Amino acid sequence: MRSEKAIENDIKRYIDSLGGWWIKIHGGSNNPSTGVPDLLACINGTFVAVEVKRSSGGVVSAIQLEQIKRINKAGGVAFVAESLKTVKDELTKHNII
Q: What is the mean pLDDT of residues 43-72?
């Protein structure tokens, strides 16, 4: 099973290959839980937020789900990704690529 870090690195390289911009949001004990997705990006003029989880055992918290909902409601595209394929599928579905 691939780690979240490995999946995240695949996604960052893919965003780079599209000419997109991204920033990694770091959580942890020094940063209170805000639920902000792991990667914030701009791809072809669209704000994209990706919460990265591994396919087995990765749990999305209620606050993370709420932030994803708020980003989508505001006109961005936010989702949970367990693989690079998920990212490609979501970007295609939303006509970003």
A: 93
